[in-house]
Amino acid sequence: MSDGHETPPGWSAEQPPPYRAPGSPYSGGPHPSAWQQPVPPQPPYGQQGYGYVPPPALRPGIIPLRPLGLGDIYDGTIKLIRSNPKAVLGLSAIVAAIAAVPVSIGQALNLSAIGGSLTNPTADPTALESGAVAQYVPTAISSVVSLAAVTILTGILIRILGRAVFGGKITAGEAWRLVSARVPALFGVAFIVIGLLLLPLIPLVLVVIAVASGGQAGPAVGLGLLFVFAYIAYALVVNTRFAFAAPIVVLEGLGPVQAMRRSWRLVTGDFWRVFGILLLTTVIASVVSMIISFPFGLIAGVVSVLSGGSTGATVAVAVVLAIGTTLGAMLTYPLQAGVAGLLYTDRRMRSEAFDLVLQTAALEQQRQGWVHATADELWHPSNARRP
């Protein structure tokens, strides 16, 4: 068949190449330089060929619904804060302020005593000792208040996180109504963990007192140092093994003992990864808190020295220290709670194929166009699967 156009190699008469007038620029179809090149074979449908890139995981909320990497966990924590800043940062600021006020008062009294002694060399030296002792009582009060406030805050943040995984938002009031019934169990976990951490200290104190009373100070010091290193390792293991107890209490509705047992099982098999991420998060939180609070501490120290420890300066110093401590804790509380909650989610995905449960629910919610409250029920342990 001849119609004035030459059929290039690789084209049949039934499928002629696109018409191109002589001298005209190329305007479509396979380029003439590619006519001689063979087409690479395509893998059969359903088979992954070389270089196959799987589709991205479903991500309705703050994390992709698949096993999480370190970047996913931190990115999800930041998205948790940004997606609901009023509830997350607002509650964290309130709790941080409540915990910061007593300890800030104690520190202000101590700095006031130091400033008075520096500006007045004839001042009574016992005033400096009294100022140092005076900060211990507020610090102890702050520790108790902080324990109670942070325990409740952690539960609320975990409940907010549980809904944010699906892209849903929840107010602080609604989160509190959902968590209020779980507060006794949260305190149960906190008290059991504290008991586990304090229990080894009793025999140590008795042994050190017995050795020191016998006039053997050297063995007492050596024994004390050896115990310090052993106790640090013990405390890290306890905190890692039971790191998921609070999320389990809130999201799965278990009691404190059952939650701690389940946390132990979830951590088993991936202990070092969980330990490393929690330790890294603690270091990051400490550094962030120190960077934020350092300028306020510096200002407080300068004011105390220049003012000579006056009453007005002491009040101003307490306010400055409280602001710095509150700002630092306002960011570190959500960071630590978010990482613990997402690590718990990751462990369920890896050990119980929980990502399949979340994906099925997310697809249904996308079909309906909204995230309803029944999404909270998906965290129940009855939805666990074995991969």
Automatic annotation (TrEMBL):
Compositionally biased intervals (Low complexity): 22-37
Annotated coiled-coil segments of the chain: none
Disordered: region residues: 1-51
Highest taxon listed in the record's lineage: Bacteria
Glycerophosphoryl diester phosphodiesterase membrane domain boundaries: 226-306
Pfam families: GPDPase_memb (PF10110)
Keywords linked to the UniProt accession: Membrane, Transmembrane, Transmembrane helix
Statement: the UniProt record of this protein carries the keyword Coiled coil: no
Membrane-crossing residue ranges in chain numbering: 87-109, 140-162, 183-212, 224-250, 271-303, 315-344
Name this protein carries in UniProt: Glycerophosphoryl diester phosphodiesterase membrane domain-containing protein
Organism: Nonomuraea africana
